Amino acid sequence: MSASAAPLVQHAEAERRNSISIVLKDIVQEYPAPGGGATRVVGGIDLALERPGINMLLGPSGCGKSTILHMMGGVRPIGVKTPTSGSVLIDGEPCDGAHDDSVMVFQRYANRPDLSVFENVAFPFRLKLWRQRLPEGEWRDRVTQILAAVGLADKKDLRPAQLSGGQNQRVALARALVLRPRILLMDEPFGALDAQTREEMQHLLVKLYNDRPCLVVFVTHDVTEALMLGDRVIVLSAQPARIADDFVIGEPRPRSGTWQRSSEAVKLEERILNQLHKVSPGKGSLRVTV
Amino acid sequence: MADFWNPYAALSPGQRKALGIGAVAALLLLWAGLAASGWVSSNRLPAPWDVAAALSYLTWHEGESLLATATLWSLGRLVVAGVLVVAIGIPIGIAMGAAPRINAALSPLLDPFRSAPVVALLPILVMWLGIGEAMKIAFLFIGAVVYLIPMVRDAIRAVPQSYWIGARDLGATPWECVRKAVLPMAMPRIADALIVAVSVMWTYITVAEYVNAKVGLGQLIQNARRFSAWDQVFAGIIVIIALALATYQLMLFAKRKLYPWETHQ
To answer: Which of A212, A287, B191, B193 is deepest in the core (most CB within 10 A)?
Structure first.
């Protein structure tokens, strides 16, 4: 590659990242119920996410928000038709199976206990798809870079059992970001962490996002988390999930504790809780970190 | 003694060893006592020293070792059957664990054999394969593989789904998910299955060598029984138990070296 071509390529890549969209059209999801019949988990959702940004899907636990995230990622955990009706469009193209525009990060980080931190982050390059796309030298550089970015450069030879929960979640995040995805789907990624570690991870996410913005869909049942991270907050009602509220937060990140206690933030928090009580009183649970 | 009825109490290694050796010593003493007192005739229970003498006779007598020859033959049959069990049983178990359709089709064919009397198959194997080595190896193979396959299947299915979903999301093909995400996580339990299968083969070796064996540990015991040489029967049984125990410990050691990361929840 000549020296003058590099900025052009970078520009093209940035362009590609900026023209990204996920559109949900009248999504309904039903799962077979144990006693016959069907349970409706998602009850008709229309949603358009059309530019890079952090989008928070906030809803009570068990409301079907993970199901929506799986649909966006094209992953079908139990072999049921997903969605039951409606359509998911990625960049205007119908998405009806696994695709490589998105990468997911889960609460259970699924790090391999038999592999080192480095090998865990490099796991995608054991797969044909990614091995064909990047020469070994390049992906090794990328892994080293992302390990430094998440602060695990000195831990690269350790095994997951030797790491804390927060460090393990950093490994999972690094494994997702090493692929430089246009869409990052996060399923309550920090839900199992203690309050202090969760806050550290939120700051890390903001830093990594600023380095390389993409379209983030972040599922949480933590109202505070939604307010601290989101460019946009989409509030879902309890099962079957419907959109109860949808608003934009203009406050720049990282958002301070002072902002968290400001009248703007407190009003938004009340608005979310009121909406949910109106739509689905007494169902599911939300968390507010104090 | 406050810790006596406490399933979670930790014993020191010294304590555990002392209790184990003590129990074996107590049994030997009881045995020696019974034999020396003359309450039980030596035709029914040979004395420990007679068994020891028989063991030494079998180990080395007139320039040859009956025991070494017998052990090598039995071990050889076991190894051949073991290789077949690994080469055929493990892939079938993995396929059943990884594909519910294959499992649904094969499990009605395989599962009944776990509770069926495998020994009853011996005459059928003799009819099909004759009385040579093929029959003996086939018998050991069947006896072990019906345990191994379901255990391998369960090992695959015990791997948390998150590994499969994670790999799928990263763009792995379904087979890559099994091969590169699920299978490596199932390996310690597959190794456990193999250890059980080998133990099962040791218990079947005498039966396998029941029909027309010219040499082998099972044959050695048969032969001694025919001449009512009970001291040699006991010696043979002790040798089989010792070999089974040694293989078990060896395989367990190898497994821990290979998969040091295995966690027990």
So the answer is: B193
